[in-house]
Amino acid sequence: MSEETLEKKFEKLYILRNKLDKEIGYNYWKKYVASAFWSQISTPINLTITFLTAVTTAQSQSENLLSHSIYSQIAITSLIITTLNTFFRPHTQYAANTEYLSKWKTLGIEFEKEYFNRMEEESIEAYKSKIEEYQKIQEKVDDLRKSEGTEMINFLTDFIYFICYRTCLRRYKRWLDVDRRIITESKQEIQKKEIDKKEKDIITEKLNQEHRIEIAKLKKKEEDMISTIERPNMISIDS
Fold first, then answer.
1. How confident is the model at residue 193 (pLDDT cuts 50, 70, 90)?
2. Measured at the alpha carbon of residue 120, what is the angle toward residues 117 and 122, in degrees to the nearest 5?
3. What is the DSSP string of the chain?
4. Per residue in 13-66, pLDDT tens?
């Protein structure tokens, strides 16, 4: 059965494959950006709160440590940062996004494993088996999306992901984009090696041809020299 016939007969396979590739890649990179954002926010905020708390505690033990105005400013700043930390919960957001990031990564690895499994087989049984496996992975994807809930919706991180999607992540929109780049680079390296080998063979053949020409010239020159030496001898004998 030709490849075109298989593609037409098992169109569902390619639809499922592309859907999973895009859906897993989209959710994974979205959670990756969100986790990175909340990680960069959570750590500085917690360190700042810890530092300000230590300063205010030291001031309460020793009134001469800071002036009253500076102490008031630190107390107000600490109150504002603590309120923002309580409201936005960056550490909780970071933990939740990291957890789902790991789950999407697990599904991505499972999809990748099935994608590269038995790629050389083009039988009907192999295609049917792949469709069944992709359907199982799709069910897990749907269950994971349902489990996220509304608490995972954040318009700020969605906007940041949209910016990343259009800039630094434009080459990594799907799960297998990294593998595709590796495969493309490997093919380019193989082609380059083949081209280099052909060029080397051409250069070697050219050098061999030049060498053969030089040998022929030397041989002809040698024959001419021998002929020149033998000619006077023949003349003296005739005399």
1. low
2. 105
3. --HHHHHHHTHHHHHHHHHHHHHHHHHHHHHHHHHHHHHHHHHHHHHHHHHHHHHHHHHHH-TTSS-HHHHHHHHHHHHHHHHHHHHH-HHHHHHHHHHHHHHHHHHHHHHHHHHSTTTT--SHHHHHHHHHHHHHHHHHHHHHHHHH-GGG--HHHHHHHHHHHHTTTTT-SSTTHHHHHHHHHHHHHHHHHHHHHHHHHHHHHHHHHHHHHHHHHHHHHHHHHHHHHHHHHHHHHH-
4. 888 889 999 999 999 999 999 999 988 888 888 888 888 888 777 777 776 667
Mean pLDDT estimate for the chain: 79
Cβ pair 108, 28 in contact under 8 A = yes
Q: How many Å apart are CA 178 and CA 192, to the nearest integer?
A: 21
| Ranges of each domain in the chain | 3-175, 177-239
Pair of tokens at residue 159: 């906007």
What residue type is assigned to position 116 of the chain? F
